[in-house]
Amino acid sequence: MQKVYVVTGSTGEWSDRSEWTVKAFTTEEAVKSFVDEATKIANEQFLMVYPTDESEPDYDYDPVSALDPFFSMDYTGTSYSYSAVELVS
What DSSP string describes 18-52? Predict the structure, then answer.
């Protein structure tokens, strides 16, 4: 049985939560690396809008990710996860 690993992005909570499919990989090593890098970018983008110092959030900043064409973020940040599914050919 061959598996593929599907990455899901998410932001928000409760009724404002949104999820989207980002990419699929054929190895677990590749998907873990992608999730780590996408999470790093998402955290950097979060800090651009919501700095850790006492300054006000920059709501005019439009967060983007070169790895995720569907990138979205709100005050909860952006999370990535993956799941393995059987590939049927």
Answer: EEEEEEEESSHHHHHHHHHHHHHHHHHHHHHHS-S
